[in-house]
Amino acid sequence: MSSITSIPTAASELSAGLPWAPAPMSADDVLAAAERLVPVLRERAAQTDRERRVAPETFRLIQEAGVLHILKPKEYGGFELTEHDHAKVAMTLARGCASTAWVASILSSDNVAIVAYPQETQDEIWGSNTYATLAGNTNLNPKAKAERVSGGYRLTGSWGFCSGSDFSEWLIFNAPAGENGEGHMFLVPREDTVTVDDWFPTGLRGTGSRTMAVEDVFVPDHRVQATKDTVEKIKERRKLHPTFDAMYAPWPSPGKFPFASVGVGAALGAVEHFAETAGSSTRVAGALGGTVKLAEQEYVATEFAEASGEAEMARLMVEASSARFSQLARQRQTPTEQDLGRGLRDNALVTRMALRSVSRIFSLVGAKAGFSDHPISRAKRDVEMMSHHVTLNWRQNAMTYMASRM
């Protein structure tokens, strides 16, 4: 493993030349902008996969499309849109490139973590750059060290899977602190971190989800919070942004579908690619040679119909479930245990449906799909990778759902 300090261009550099904040955009405006990006992302997807990072010029397009302002307070140039809007935009972007959509979805989602901190901290992050983003890892690293000093802590440790860290000015890390060693969330400027280039997975390779490390970095008190207090802190900060409905959603919220929507979008992208190319595609007929046209095979028609139907059902479930959570937040209603259990089930279920869909399509293509640059290969690898995310664990979420119904 090698350590590097800058991969590739920080978002602060990319935001140079942009207005202080995007012009106000409606949900339909942002979704339309995301739709226009799909062919561009699709064209760049193979390069993103090979280079294990989203290109700076691609990230600039995400900024300009307003994606990073969906779940951001109006005080800082945000649009204060809903989790439903966030899920639909992430799903749309993933039809072009799952890795790019994954990064955009996480950086957009993490804005809600920022609003859990005091206004001083929010001003520090967004006051001069409303495009500033937060990446990192909120899983507790028990090996990390946070030494209490005057006015804050000295933090040392490393955290893997920091998706979006290529373009984030800020990192969030969960480390034990205090007498009982409880988890605390530390916000650290990117310049105080070191990137470890260890991201060589089979899928989602373009997310650049590398390990980030800090060594004896001072973190002031206003950038430190006990993890267990996050939900209550978000509630306290509501008075700072009284019209921001997403602050009334649970945290972390299954309604945003920050990961599952990307899987569904990737499956929908595979469906679109196969539909566009099947008419002119062939595969080897048998061991002695010959070719058959895919579009003329009955088994292809039946498998593709089922695969595309599953992907479409998953899309409808994401839209319906995210709309329910957004409606609860808009009405200032706290989700019940059944609501939360159902939301977790839906996140894991649509991911399973997306994986089945893309795997079926993969099997129709033949040996050509085994090449890493093939769009169906990439979609299958990406969905397989995200299906292992802890929030999408089917058995765990199914148990939670069952308990909520009893």
From TrEMBL:
Acyl-CoA dehydrogenase C-terminal domain ranges (all copies): 259-393
Species: Geodermatophilus ruber
GO molecular function: acyl-CoA dehydrogenase activity; flavin adenine dinucleotide binding; oxidoreductase activity, acting on paired donors, with incorporation or reduction of molecular oxygen, reduced flavin or flavoprotein as one donor, and incorporation of one atom of oxygen
GO biological process: fatty acid beta-oxidation using acyl-CoA dehydrogenase
Protein family: Belongs to the HpaH/HsaA monooxygenase family.
Pfam family, one: Acyl-CoA_dh_2
UniProt domain Acyl-CoA dehydrogenase/oxidase N-terminal: residue ranges: 41-126
Gene3D superfamilies assigned: Acyl-CoA dehydrogenase/oxidase, N-terminal domain, Butyryl-CoA Dehydrogenase, subunit A, domain 2, Butyryl-CoA Dehydrogenase, subunit A, domain 3
Keyword rRNA processing: no
Top-level taxon of the source organism: Bacteria
Entry protein name: Resorcinol 4-hydroxylase oxygenase subunit
Keywords noted in UniProt: Oxidoreductase
Gene Ontology CC terms: cytoplasm
